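Apologies for my clumsy wording, but are you able to produce some protein sequence, whichever is easiest, and the tokens describing how it folds?
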Amino acid sequence: MKTVFLLALALAGAAAAPGDVPPAPAPLAADAPFRDEIERFAAIDRMQTPPACALLFVGSSSIRLWTSLRSDMAPLPVINRGFGGSTLAQSNLYFDRIVAPYRPRAILLYAGENDLDGGAAPARVVEDFRQFLALKDARLGATPVFYIAAKPSKLRAAQLPRQTELNRGIAEIAAARKDVHFIDVVPAMLDRGTPRDLYVADGLHMAPAGYAIWREKVMTALRDAGIPKRRCN
């Protein structure tokens, strides 16, 4: 309930014209989810000015653990704001802290897998993505969003049907909007319907071979969308 309330406040504050600088967020509550990580991002930004016109990668631990991200996306500058085992709803909650301030060239989002694992219905996660886009529209206008499909992992192989439903819902949104792109990493990560050996020992987080697939798919999607040539707002 607290997450829904705070998100409603964020959306209510999104009445400014697209591209306006959002108001400074209120201090985080002591029990805010992933509070330490979110505050660490702010501390990093105070110590070192984030790169301008960067690719912003945001979402859960699959983003946080992408240690080769900077070299994989070179020469385009990147900002990594993956945090913990976060949900898409939590990316919405912290939008004005970890997305809007950077005014990125493009947003690369990986979130939703943990929502499903926590019991959220695919339709609920699709709705949360619509809320993410509403925040993006209000704060960043036409900035493109690239949604990386929920990945098929060994640990969560039983969830593949629900992931497929989620991915289908996101793909439908992308098909209807010029500023939204769906990056389907799933076929390349399966072998005859079974997750390939692309993971570390926990069966959930990716080894370098998994990130190599993501790099190829992401770079292809960016090139197809003309992102390297796109000017920032």
Remarks:
- The mean pLDDT is 91.
- The CA atoms of residues 5 and 186 lie 34 Å apart.
